[in-house]
Amino acid sequence: MSDEPGDHPATLAAQALGLVDPTTRSIVPPIYPSAPYERAPDGSYPGGHTYTRDQNPTYDQVEALLSRLEGGQGALLFSSGMAAATTVFETLDTGDHVVAPEQMYWTIQRWLEELAGRGRIVLDLVPNGDQAALEAVLRPGRTKIVWVETPANPTCAITDIAATAEAAHAAGARVVVDSTLCTPVLCRPIEHGADLVMHSATKQLNGHADVLAGALITAQRDELWERVTHDRGYRGAVLGPFEAWLLLRGMRTLFLRVPHSATSAQRIAEWLLTHPAVSEVCYPGLPTHPGHTVAARQMSGGFGMLLSFRLRGGAAAAKTAAAGLRLFKNATSLGGVESLVEHRAPVEGPGSRVPDDLLRLSVGIEAVEDLVADLQQALAGR
After folding, report:
1. Is 232 a catalytic residue?
2. How many domains does the chain have?
3. Is 53 an active-site residue?
């Protein structure tokens, strides 16, 4: 980003790029619900749009803002984070090799395992952040995608994006980073060598838990990006205009919400670290976290709103503690203004790699003193 007035990322987000409706001079972005667009007599589209499955002016502003914030050359919205992720893998040819981490969002991992089981792809899962393990499985010319999720959900494992990109690019592979837990406020993966950035925009990008959305941002408008764009248009995995508008509205407060939640999460993690009922706290902002040094290098302004902790009493203690929380609502999701807790292993079910004594916290924007007090009363006597 340049140093021109108004070009700070927080200003770009707050003003939604500063665009003003040319007809009404409305500062609040309008919603364009139209599916078709009128052709000119010569058959062209003077408005620059053909059909809303491919383009819509409401998408345009959100995509332009995402691209600027991530430092990319283009962005695309999708109907969900899963729609964004699966579109990337649907661009692969049968038998292409994919490398993904052992700890990652479980729905994407299970979908990859299903693809591998059907013979669509060849899949290797490697320990998060283990550079030697990654380099050992790379297949020059055959590995097409190296998937990175950092911090990883729900264990907060950290991967060095720059080191991963260097090894993957040497093998001819593209690096896709799921940066849902960071948002561009805390990390811009393209600056560290990523080719694509994926977001479940349902989470902290939107921030209000009232829209389902996904996004991809590209470092280059290359052949892979053209395939992704083509596939989105054909598969129709797009947002409705109103949902896109809700996402943009949420993003305007991104630089207020994300640092606040990260600061609170840091304080909660430090408090949990001292609690006798807690055996381990998983948060990259703690110096005790094995990925802290790497996280501190590639993240700025905080370490995110998600943290997990394990209880000495095992799965039963975790279940009881989750049920005892009053402010932290027991629900699946993360990144909203309200704080959530989830006993993650039972949610993922058989085959989950998550310890059964682990609770995941999504820290919202409430007063951190209230959140700590809620945890204190729920853990009392354990």
Report:
1. no
2. 2
3. yes
Domain that holds residue 105: 9-251
Residues 32, 59, 105, 283: which is the catalytic one?
A: 105
If we measure between CA atoms, which residue out of 140, 132, 203, 208 comes closest to residue 172?
140
Residues 260 and 198 in one domain: no
Q: Catalytic: 203?
A: yes
- Answer yes or no: 105 catalytic: yes
Among the candidates 251, 285, 300, a domain finishes at: 251
Q: What's the CA dihedral at 51, 53, 57, 59 to 10 degrees?
A: -170
Tell me if the pTM is above 0.85: yes
CA nearest neighbour of 354 among 322, 382, 315, 297: 315
DSSP letters of 226-254?
Answer: HHHHHHHHHHT----HHHHHHHHHHHTTH
Residue type, 322: A
Block residue for tokens 């040819």: 93
In this structure, what CATH number is given to the domain that contains residue 327? 3.90.1150.10
Residues 6+ apart with CB under 8 A from 322: 330, 341, 342, 343, 359, 378
227/233 Cα distance (integer angstroms): 10
CA 248, chain centre distance (Å): 16
235 plus 328 within the same structural domain: no
Q: What angle do CA 290, 293, 299 make, to 5 degrees?
A: 115
Peptide bond into 355 cis (omega under 30): no
Residue in 60, 96, 160, 178 annotated catalytic: 178
Q: pLDDT tens digits for 37-72?
A: 899 999 898 888 888 888 899 999 999 999 999 999
Residue tagged active-site, from 68, 203, 344, 360: 203
The segments of the chain whose pLDDT lies below 70 read 1-5, 381-382
Final residue of a structural domain among 219, 251, 283: 251
